[in-house]
């Protein structure tokens, strides 16, 4: 366990880096900016994080856990048709975009389209696998009973988040009225209908073995 002072120092740096990133975007924030804002010396920052990239990795992981955690909780918490559970996951994504607009823009979208994301692909691949595992475990009996189409976990994530994030992009561009969450029913139905249509096209795994 880290000493309390070490945890406090780390948190001060993370809090300052988060605040500066939300205001300016991560590419515009320097290590010097974080040092000045946090009051933590450059040597101490280096000791705890190694570099600005070490700080960014922590911001990235924390925000992905919050975002995808909210989506996963909505999927796992739905009691009913499992294809509709993924629709509820999409609704949760829209709610996150609405409630945390600045965080979503700065800590999700801007990372997604950055060279940093390309350079740290292994971090995202490992994290995505970790975050989606509870949903995969929940889905296994539904695959076996042909209640969900047999698709890769990454496809389920793309088909759940893609429509929600596309709607939010249009909202951020000023092309949609209201808020992303106001389109929750539409997007949830769209995601569920797409998975259900694919389920119809996917052979019953039990029947295929007969």
From TrEMBL:
Keyword flag Metal-binding: no
Q: Which residues bind DNA?
A: 30-49
Keyword field: DNA-binding
- Residues forming the HTH tetR-type domain are 7-67
Q: Which SUPFAM superfamilies match?
A: Homeodomain-like (SSF46689), Tetracyclin repressor-like, C-terminal domain (SSF48498)
Fetch the Gene3D superfamilies from UniProt: Tetracycline Repressor, domain 2
The record, for Pfam families, names:
TetR_N (PF00440)
- UniProt GO MF annotations: DNA-binding transcription factor activity; transcription cis-regulatory region binding
Q: Can you tell me which residues the record assigns to a coiled coil?
A: none
The protein's name: TetR/AcrR family transcriptional regulator
Organism encoding this protein:
Flavisphingopyxis soli
